[in-house]
Queue: 2 jobs
Job 1
Amino acid sequence: MFNPTNKPLIVQSDSTVLLDVHDPGAEEARRSLSQFAELEKSPEHIHTYRITNLSLWNAAAAGFSPEELLGSLQDFSRFPLPDSLGISMKETMNRFGALQLFPTSEDKVLYLGTRQKAIYAELEAHPRLKKLLIPYDPQSARGIQTEPAVPPLGFLVQLLHRGTIKQQLINLGYPVEDMAPLREGSPLDITLQDRTPNGQPFEIRDYQTQSVQAFLGEKRPGTGFGTIVLPCGAGKTIVGLAAMAELGQETLILTTNSSAVHQWIRELREKTTLEEDQIGEYTGSKKQIRPVTVATYQILVWRPDKESDFPHFDLLRSRNWGLVIYDEVHLLPAPMFRVTAELQALRRLGLTATLVREDGLEREVFSLVGPKRFDIPWKDLEGRGWIAQAFCVEYRCDLPEARKIPYATADRRQKYRIASENPIKYDIAEYLIAKHRGESILVIGQYLDQLRTISKELGAPLLTGETPQTERDVLYSKFREGSIKVLVVSKVANFAIDLPDASVAIQISGSFGSRQEEAQRLGRILRPKKQHSFFYTIISRNTSEEEFSLNRQKFLTEQGYRYSIEIWDGDPRTDPAPHTRSSGEKTEA
DNA sequence: TATGGGGAAA
DNA sequence: AATAATTCCCCATA
């Protein structure tokens, strides 16, 4: 390492922070930075983070003070911090909680209070908001709480508008601190088992307990709703189960697809004292509504046509739920926001590996589900052996001469396809498979044609969306027991949580740079069985694939995965003088 | 009860 | 900004 300064950060006045990944203090700085900044770019040497309003509000909701954050920036910063940054960070963070919601003596009315005249005036003048806000007259009979005293300036708000108002205010730049009480649901007797059915002792991990405590907050005002952020494989389901057990109320669990529904039901049966008839499945094929019900988002947002209502929204009101769990809350479909806005009196627990949404609706999640209550650095979990240490390597290879002309003359979308289907990728895949002989390997791709070809070349079975469930089960079990070592899979790998463990994944093509997809694939595939896992991405050099690969990697680096870039100059096993250039950290074990 | 097709979504 | 593939829902058939 050159220039060891232990000052890995360069903090700039435009709210970006550059991280020198080669600095010995880089890991520690990253850990601190990720609590209040978002990763934007992550090429080999310098990573760019951005301090956003939302990242600061999450930090504020978690109890960080601006002074603390500035202090840690200062500690790692190579140059003095820009004054303007400190001022704007303080200003932004102080806006969280500048407006607070409280109960009143009336059942259906809340009090939105502030200590700041300017904010009061701004809301009073706001064309859309003022319709929802009733100026509070201290002479009126309507009682606001005096113990502890609420801020003197404020409005009355219909309970009905609780969500809408929070949504609109966050867009104005005022994330509301919601101190109004939540509704208690019907009681439910549920305890975690201390052994799994096959006699294994089952213990909840400390960070899972901490997550639950941070979420429930001993039922203090302003707690009982929010999001827990844990890496894939860290046991988010257990957090959900533990929250249910701690709370002891009827619960509705919402997930992304039907295999996730089945997974939750399996876990509920295995790890809690609930009886089978207390657990319901509400999906396309079954419509059970029971004290604990697991449903897909899709069934809730389904409607016969664009004009109709959502016929399954009734599920949300059909029982007196004490808790709604939003699994993979970063994938919450947009129409669910509307209904979530109406459910502000329910306890809401979001579970996710990332707060980033591809559609940029992070603020909706913040205002309607709730702020981040807990996360744990990926590094900590890795260090304690809860999740595998994963290495990401990107291989870059040239297009074959014969395809360079077709590439140059193709239109934009064909370019990407030609780059993706570069046949040299097959050589690299073969090389990597040989290198990891004996391990369970997944080859993942985007195009069925390409996958069929490589499946034939490698003599490895192919699994796609068309593969019927019975055939999948056969492939899964063979892969699990090891009689199949290499499995070629399409996008099914993104969703199939029943896919068995693998320790090596080779991605030969991917979709348009979705960060989530990348993380999902990696997280789902690389379970903590082994100490080390490898995730290879193969892309064509000097093609449009390079742009997308950058975006994809953002997320991985943010999560703390390290990756390196290898240039492919032919198979190093047969090439007498391989000059493979490598950058980033070495990954060879 | 299973299977296949159409439409929508992210 | 965009592709292709997948999955989910419901409904119609047998």
Job 2
Amino acid sequence: MEMDKLVALCKRRGFLFQSSEIYGGLNGFWDYGPLGVELKRNVKEAWWRDMVAGHDDLATLPGAPGPYAMTGLDCAIIMHPQVWKCSGHYDLFHDYMVDCRESKKRYRYDQVQGRWVEAKGQRIFVAVPSGEKEDEQIEQRALKYFNLRAKHAEELHWDGPVVSLTTVKDFSQVLGPDAKELGTLTPPREFNLMFKTTVGALGGEEDVAFLRPETAQGIFVNFKNVIDSSRVRIPFGIAQMGKSFRNEITPRYFTFRSREFEQMEIEFFCHPRQSPEWYRYWRDRRYAWYVGLGLAGERLRLRDHSPEELSHYSCGTADIEYAFPFLAKGEFGELEGIAHRGDFDLRSHMEGKLVRKGNELVVEMGPDGKPRHKGSGKDLSYFDDQTRERYIPHVIEPSAGADRATLAFLCEAYCEDKVPDENGKLTERVVLRLHPRLAPIKAAVFPLVNKDGMPEIAQKLYRELKREFNVFYDDKGAVGRRYRRQDEAGTPYCFTIDGQTLQDNTVTIRDRDTLKQERLPLAEVAHRLHELLR
RNA sequence: GCGGGUGUAGCUCAGUGGUAGAGCGCCACGUUGCCAACGUGGCUGUCGUGGGUUCAAGUCCCAUCACCCGCUCCA
């Protein structure tokens, strides 16, 4: 499937529009149209129902170590700036970058390493991107620059150890990591990956706040509130859906990498001893969720991260990925990450921003010997009344992208097939084979023709169904055309009132995927639709 | 941020300096008896945006915005 065709369909049928389109659009922002808003709502509602509202607190679900509770939360998008300092986002999202005019490459300012060297009467700073065997790389680059053979390496006079580019004031004598000439690096420029805003009408620098780059932190900072107010006991999860914002350098791939996006996140709190089991449970449970809603083919995969890939605080992470059509063959894009985060988050908000030291997480210290970012100082540990044990819970985080899931469902659903026309000749058809739970319109109601009382009966059925379902009434043009229009919108069922209805009160139900038609009594339509949408 | 490509009707696209086009869709009326292709009529455009060159610009030049591809980035 070519992505262009899906993008065109999304626009034509009102799934997705470019944001602010009449003013030329805005990079990285998208609007959901009349059909898109229903689809995305259905994705989110399916998630909330399956994970939270419909969760059985009493049962031990297949694969789970035991019963658990689920509860929800809806936090403010703007939180105290200290939240982001302790979570690590402030430092990580606050990068300085340098560009190379010659190689057109971009580097993190603080990650470029290099060493001063003098030869042939010239003193230059030889840079390499941080990595392995920096010394070796630097020497090779220096030899090459001065046009020396390896056996003449002693002509290179090193001045000091390998240091960061941040120690260099003037870049005119710097040999960039991929450059052949000196002085090709631009001055460092600040990249704010968090959206900055100001709280209060007169706000100055000290009133700076950030739009949240993830919903998770709102859950951590409310952990104690939920414990104290809801009688939940560990193990339990807190779920939240909502907008997040990241000032991506390169928004790309339709809605896949947007600057404003919606997340569906769970923070699941459990005893440290049980956390590996819960991690595996959530990984498999979340994968099965996508499969159940139609991403069943080879385009969906569950990928465990390799140890090198793991974040500094994580002891296990898996991605649920989808082979989006805009990616290169063999490449997958992330729909959801399931991370074992240990006690990193709760401890950070207690003690302050943490860093890894050996095998331990310790509070990162600033140059003044005090914590670089001070925590709340509140006790976020948990006391188990039954075992008389106090501990900081470990956290399993299934973090999903609502827009990415919506896009994946659209990509998977898009299908061009051939169906017979009135003469039995095969004609092209565009159909969205969306799972009935996700379909924006659940059913359409048609009078076969606009006479003999058919419209009256059809309208009555439409009104009855509309009370419970998003249904659509259409009496325009030939009925075949109406079926095709619904196919493009992904509507799974069509009910048609025809001549026979007038005699025996039965209607036809037409299936989007098989095109099969079946008669059923008018009075049973609502009941049947209920069953089909389950 | 860099390089390449693209931008014309709701959609897909034609239009190589001289009156703005086609197909599909959409709307109305008629027709209608189950899978888009019946008839008649109709609506649709600051040619992405802003400047410039020219008697004349959709077309040439400059800038800018957006989308696609490749770098870069992606806790």
